[in-house]
Amino acid sequence: MDNIAAMCDNDLLSRFAKGHNEAMQVLVERYKAKLFSYIYYTVKDRVIAEDIFQDVFFKVIVSLKHGRYEENGKFFPWLTRIAHNLIIDYFRRQKAQNTISNDDYEFDLFSNLNLCESNIEDEIVREQILKQVGSLVYELPEEQREVVLMRYYYDMSFKEISEQTGVSINTSLGRMRYAVLNLRKIIENKKISLVV
Predict the structure, then answer these.
(1) Where exactly are the structural domains of the chain?
(2) CB-based contact 180:170 (threshold 8 Å)
(3) Counting Cβ atoms within 10 Å, is residue 163 exposed (0-12), middle (13-18) or buried (19+)?
């Protein structure tokens, strides 16, 4: 019997496709430390990272069973892209569920000056602008669009964006700068008035 642990990724994937489940276990073992570190470093919570890690391999198995993976020698980048998408989904859900409950605090949240009118008005204005600009964002080049979405729609810091996209903070800042310039051009060319 051949040494399964020494097989390349594509051979293991072929073996798994033929019903040899131990091949997937070898792939999980091969990449678990690197992939888990990537996920954990981004979400900064071990339990959430473990859930996302399991979801990645669940999606991998489903995709392989349905023949949706092309053998091109890029198995780990494919894993990373799946993890990246699941992480973005996680942050999107977190933002949607980010509500404040008065039951968790001993003082009255509604008497807190930091949550009064001007801050609420600022948030309403920000939300209106984000809605108006939202459709225009999809006219940006992909790298610029990704930074804008992560920064303004998922509330990620530039440090988190650089970690997520695998580029330096300066590159992320540069992409944001060009995105803003391009959005201004789009708004001018379409003669759009941002009303708040």
Answers:
(1) 1-99, 112-196
(2) no
(3) middle
| Domain 1-99 classification at class level | mainly alpha
Cβ atoms 61, 21 nearer than 8 A: no
> Which tokens is 22 given?
């131990």
Q: Is residue 148 within 8 Å of 137, Cβ to Cβ?
A: yes
For Cα atoms 57, 86, 129, give the angle at the middle one, nearest 5 degrees. Answer: 170
CATH 1.10.10.10 fits 112-196, yes or no: yes
Q: Give per-residue pLDDT as tens, 125-144.
A: 666 666 666 667 778 888 88
pLDDT, one tens digit per residue, over 88-120 is 888 888 776 654 444 444 444 444 444 444 455
Write out the DSSP string of 115-159. GSHHHHHHHHHHHHHHHHHHHHHTTS-HHHHHHHIIIIIS---HH
Assess contact for 48 and 90: CB atoms under 8 A.
yes
The answer to whether the pTM exceeds 0.70 is no
- Identify the band that residue 1 occupies on the pLDDT scale cut at 50, 70 and 90: very low
Please say whether the beta carbons of 147 and 138 come within 8 A. Answer: no
DSSP state of 101: -
Quick check: 121 pLDDT over 70? no
Residue at token pair 């993890």? 83
The pair of three-digit structure tokens given for residue 143, joined into one six-digit string = 């790298």
